[in-house]
Amino acid sequence: KITYLDLADNAFAGSVPSEIGSLTKITYLDLGSNNFTASVPSEIGSLTLLNVLHLGSNGFTGSVSIEILLLPSFTGSTLNNTNVTTSLSSAIVLLLSKRYQWKLDFYNKG
Q1: What is the 3-state secondary structure (H, E, C) of the chain?
Q2: How far apart are CA 39 and CA 83, in angstroms?
Q3: CA 97: distance to chain centroid?
Q4: Which of 22, 63, 100, 104 matches a 20 to 30 Å C-alpha distance to 93?
Q5: What is the mean pLDDT of the chain?
Q6: How confident is the model at residue 26 (pLDDT cuts 50, 70, 90)?
Q7: Under CATH, domain 4-105 is a member of which superfamily?
Q8: Where does residue 87 rank: exposed (0-12), middle (13-18), buried (19+ CB within 10 A)?
């Protein structure tokens, strides 16, 4: 079983395969600093043990599924240097930040 997967800095391009959702035991996933495009795969929202997700420095577009941000074990994500947005209102962010300790980094977002 794979629990930790670091694929950063590999010059991967295109979209992340939907099969990423079959990594049901994964707790750490780093896809940062590649050349991924398209949207962040919604299948990541089925990774219920995921703690940390790094997606920064890619060409991702669109929005992050709220299912990803509400994963039970989720503690943080980096989305810096991407064109990704989130549809969470500030009120929801405030409620979540009181219940969970997590980090969502949009630093230097393109």
Answers
A1: CCCEEECCCCCCEECCCHHHHHCCCCCEEECCCCEECCECCHHHHHCCCCCEEECCCCCCECEECHHHHCCCCCCEEECCCCCCEECCCHHHHHHHHHHCCCEEECCCCC
A2: 9
A3: 17
A4: 22
A5: 81
A6: very high
A7: Ribonuclease Inhibitor (3.80.10.10)
A8: exposed
Place of tokens 């707790």: 27
Q: Which residue has the tokens 């009120």?
A: 91
Q: Which amino acid is at 35?
A: N
**Does the predicted model carry a pTM greater than 0.85?**
no
Higher pLDDT, 68 or 90: 68
Q: Distance (Å, rounded) from C-alpha 36 to C-alpha 76?
A: 20
- Residue 85 CB neighbours (<10 A): 13
pLDDT of res. 99: 54
